[in-house]
Amino acid sequence: MNRQLFLAALTVGFSTAAMGACEEGSKTVFSCITAKSKLIQVCDSGKTINYSFGKLNSTPEIVIRVARSKASTYQWSGVGRTIYYSVDVPNGNTTYSVFSGFDRLADKYPFEAGVQVEVNKKHVATVKCIGEEIHVVNNIMGIDLKPSE
Q1: CA distances (Å), 124 to each of 59, 80, 115, 143, 148, in order?
Q2: Which residues contact 11 (CB under 8 A, 6 or more apart)?
Q3: Using CA of residue 108, residue 110, residue 114, residue 116, what is the dihedral sign?
Q4: Could you tell me the residue ranges of all domains in the chain?
């Protein structure tokens, strides 16, 4: 597992042709493909953070736009063996937490990315991205959002 490549992707914003595009004028914060060929995507349009989920090359099944002040982030503090970042997008009593991370000291815990879904603060689902870190557009590190609770 190439951890340096992961960190480079965080810094420069890796992109691939297989990933969907955010609306014009917005920045891709996160994008990946799941095992069931679904696209998980978070876009930053400046005033809003937008989350979408759905089949590739189709209208998304879920589209959520929240005011930037409603979204939040967890940023790895630089301490500890697990490097982890997330962006939380609330929608009523449901929160979509798009994440990426890995244990930097153990190859048996590979890079993971995806979305965790909570309803009424209870975990109900995790959908993971496929492939290694080079298949994930990951610009979560350093995003200017309030800290997650």
Answers
A1: 24, 27, 11, 26, 19
A2: 141
A3: positive
A4: 3-147
Q: How far from 73 is each of 61, 101, 139, 143, CA to CA, in Å? A: 23, 13, 12, 8
- Report the amino acid identity of residue 147: P
Task: Report the alpha-carbon distance of residue 73 to residue 97 in Å, rounded.
Answer: 9
In the numeric block, which tokens belong to residue 67?
């005011």
Instruction: Tell me the pairing of strands 72-75 and 146-147.
Output: parallel
Percent of the chain with pLDDT over 90: 66
**CA distance linking residue 64 with residue 115, whole number of Å:** 14
pTM of the model: 0.83
Burial 114-140 (b: 16+ CB within 10 A, else e): bbbbbeeeeeeeebebeeebebbbbbb
